[in-house]
Amino acid sequence: MASESPLAPTPEVPGELRLRLIRAITLLASIFVISVCGLMWIEGWDLWRAFFFTLITVTTVGYGDEGISVVGQRFATLLLVGGIGTASYTFALVVQAMVTNQFAWRRRMQTRIDKLEGHVLVCGFGRMGRTICDELDAVGHPFVVIECDLSVASEAIERGFAVVHGSATEDGVLTRAGVKRASHLVCATDRESENIVATLSARQLCSKIQIIARAEHAEEIRKLRLAGATRTVAPFHLGGLEIANAITRPRVADFLASSTRARSAVALAEILIAADSPLVGRTLADCGSREASRVSFVTLERENGEALTPPRGGLELAAGDLLIAAGDPDQIGWMRDAARPFADEVIDALDPESVPAALPSEDADAPADAPEPDRAA
Fold first, then answer.
1. Residue 282: which of 314, 323, 316, 319 has the closest Cα?
2. Which of 70, 148, 248, 328 is 20 to 30 A removed from 376 (C-alpha atoms)?
3. Alpha-carbon distance 214 to 194, whole Å?
4. φ, ψ dihedrals at 267, nearest 5°
């Protein structure tokens, strides 16, 4: 479940306006109290009739002759002069406070969005969009929802998500969502034309962004590719494949389904080795001997595009390598932190005193139970 976000439209009224509003409400309440007490004393009315007469007088509704005496009429004159003006001023301040609060939380949300870097734009908060947002939120990856339906956008806001209300086909909406700073754009709506136009607009605004678009038919896939989509996903096709795998390979299907969820007992992850990583120059056997003893290395893709499946334990990791690994989530997390220490702000991975404990140095004695160098970790 998403945690409460500071982007949610919480009441926020500026100090000066709040003070004026409190004074106006206090004055109006005082007029009501004085008027009710005065009418009960002058006319001998009960509490409800005095309050009702005060209310219809201040709101200028009237409702006909109330049979008031001459002294009561003189008292009502004072009420008309002071009460109506005070009530009008108070109501105006209430409307101003509501409008101010509406713009305040919108500015606060836009300020938060403007600070995001490398986030994901999710166009459409339907069934697919909700699933995508839930998974991204579970792993803590920043994202912004773009939704044109106000009621659906409000639902996303209530769940604590950053939202831009508007159509993803408009350049201004994409710009407000930070398309030029985003890493991915996901077109998850069920409208073919909107996905195509959003893909085309995003590609023109940012040539480097990765665009993943939902497609239903082969012709739609072709159009999305021409519009600039990096990858297309056909939900019904993938659903059919998953059902077929559940029939023919149920254990494999269960493993893949569990490993691709945000929270699972087995993690399947991509690990990119950065140039400043302490993993550079180490072999897979070294990594698998201690901190990554419960991790299996599936594929090692070199920077030049060469893919080694499965990689041998004696292969040395180099900057730019992409490692696909499966295993214990905690150890996968350690591998990610060590692979990109500066990006993930893992200072301990660069501490000279902690590196030998995490990865044995080349001249250190290998543990007795270490795997052979030429075996897969």
1. 316
2. 248
3. 11
4. -105, 140
User: What is the C-alpha to C-alpha distance for residues 34 and 171, in angstroms, rounded to an integer?
Assistant: 58
Domain range 116-233, CATH architecture = 3-Layer(aba) Sandwich (3.40)
E runs forming strands in the chain: 120-123, 143-147, 162-165, 184-187, 210-214, 231-233, 267-272, 295-301, 307-308, 322-327
Q: What share of the chain is helix, strand, coil (3-state, %, to 5)?
A: 50, 15, 40
CATH architecture of 15-112: Orthogonal Bundle (1.10)
Question: Under a CB-based contact definition with an 8 Å cutoff, are residues 113 and 177 in contact?
Answer: yes
Per-residue pLDDT tens over the stretch 40-83: 888 888 888 888 888 777 777 666 666 676 776 667 777 776 77
| d(C-alpha 169, C-alpha 123), whole Å | 10
Least confident of 1-15, 267-281, 309-323, 336-350: 1-15
User: Are the C-beta atoms of 321 and 302 separated by less than 8 Å?
Assistant: yes
Strands 184-187 and 162-165: unpaired
Percent of the chain residues past pLDDT 70, beyond the cut: 76
Query: ∠ at Cα 272 (253, 307), nearest 5°?
Result: 65
Q: State the pTM of this model.
A: 0.56
pLDDT in tens, 314-332: 888 888 888 888 878 788 7
The answer to whether 113 touches 175, Cβ cutoff 8 Å, is no
